[in-house]
Design a protein that fits this description.
Shape: elongated
Order of helices and strands: HEHEHEHEHEHEHHEHHHE
Number of strands: 8
Oligomer: single chain
Distance between the termini: 17 Å
Helix content: 40-55%
CATH class of the largest domain: Alpha Beta
Strand order of the largest sheet: 7-5-6-4-1-2-3-8
Radius of gyration: 25 Å
Strand content: 15-25%
Length: 327
């Protein structure tokens, strides 16, 4: 099943009597899977509601799929989806959301930094009428200073460029009402930034804070390169303001160049030589640098148009544990 299929079948896909779906992307999380499932069971079983847990293996190479299929044999409420390759966190998350059938759907990470014991608070807010329950993490020094700085300022820049207000510390740990999820699955954004898409949709929203836990095992898969591509794709997907900023930068630098030409012409009429070829070279280098910067921004948008025209799906589901006795 591809992402395109998921979009075509989006609509009211609830299963009668199923109250909650928990969606978890996993990439090389074999050491986290068992403690995660035990923690979820300890929280969900006392709630006495019908639920399902959907875990999406995002092309793992460490035995995550084998451990997942074993878990589904012991608990039919666990569903495993295996992607054909690594599509990234957002693609895997969208794959799980497209399969979710509950009236409420909670998404969270597999590393236990999103504590399962927050789930009852999310459900309480939903029962009180919230259609989106987002979370803000309180970081007690677990993340690096660079991570905290980049996250906080990314959301500020994103809000400025797109007009969509977003608070620092947001993540994909949230609850969505079925109606919101159906609308989310109808969107055709090529660069996946689901938390931005949820904010853009609107709906009645409540914000809860939680204390982020230490990662149980392994290391974060979000390298600096992945974070940079994620941030650039998110901004380009939601705003054309960088193109407008490029126009103003081009105008300002053009005025600067015009002033330099005027200065040189006046000096020529006065019969004076124009010393300082180094300064002139510096100005020219600066102008060329700005020119290539603006061309780079334009190129990024053209590249996005190219990706959209190719119409590739955001994920491909290669195998599933449903109807196969967990195999």
């Amino acid at each position: 099943m591809t992402g395109a299929d998921a979009h075509r079948t989006a609509g009211d896909q609830t299963t009668p009597g199923l109250e909650l779906s928990v969606v978890i992307p996993a990439f090389n999380e074999v050491d986290n899977l068992d403690p995660l499932l035990r923690s979820l069971e300890a929280v969900l079983v006392p709630l006495r509601i019908p639920y399902e847990i959907i875990i999406v293996d995002d092309g793992s190479s460490d035995g995550t799929w084998k451990a997942l299929t074993a878990a589904t044999r012991h608990d039919p409420r666990i569903v495993g989806l295996g992607l054909s390759r690594n599509f990234g966190h957002q693609g895997a998350l969208l794959a799980g959301l497209s399969r979710a059938r509950g009236r409420a759907v909670i998404s969270m990470d597999a590393d236990l930094q999103h504590p399962p014991d927050v789930i009852p608070r999310l459900l309480d807010a939903w029962h009180q009428g919230a259609q989106v329950v987002r979370t803000i993490r309180r970081d007690a020094g677990i993340a690096s200073p660079f991570k905290r700085f980049s996250s906080r300022n990314f959301y500020r820049v994103f809000a400025f460029l797109t007009g969509i207000p977003m608070a620092g510390g947001m993540s994909d740990f949230r609850l969505l009402d079925r109606r919101v999820l159906d609308e989310l699955l109808q969107l055709k954004n090529r660069d996946l930034f689901l938390r931005g898409s949820v904010e853009w949709l609107g709906y009645r929203t409540v914000t809860l804070e939680f204390d982020v836990a230490a990662r149980h095992a392994g290391v974060s898969k979000y390298t600096l390169g992945r974070m940079t591509r994620f941030a650039v794709g998110a901004v380009i997907s939601f705003s054309s303001k960088p193109l407008k900023i490029g126009i103003w930068i081009g105008l300002c630098t053009s005025l600067l160049a015009l002033g330099e030409i005027g200065y040189a012409f006046v000096q020529y009429l006065r019969g004076e030589t124009v010393p300082g070829w180094a300064s002139l070279t510096a100005v020219m280098s600066f102008l060329f640098g700005v020119l290539f910067l603006v061309l780079g921004v334009i190129g990024a948008y053209i590249g996005r148009i190219h990706d959209i025209l190719q119409n590739r799906p955001p994920f491909v589901i290669a195998e599933t544990t449903e109807g196969a006795d967990g195999g």
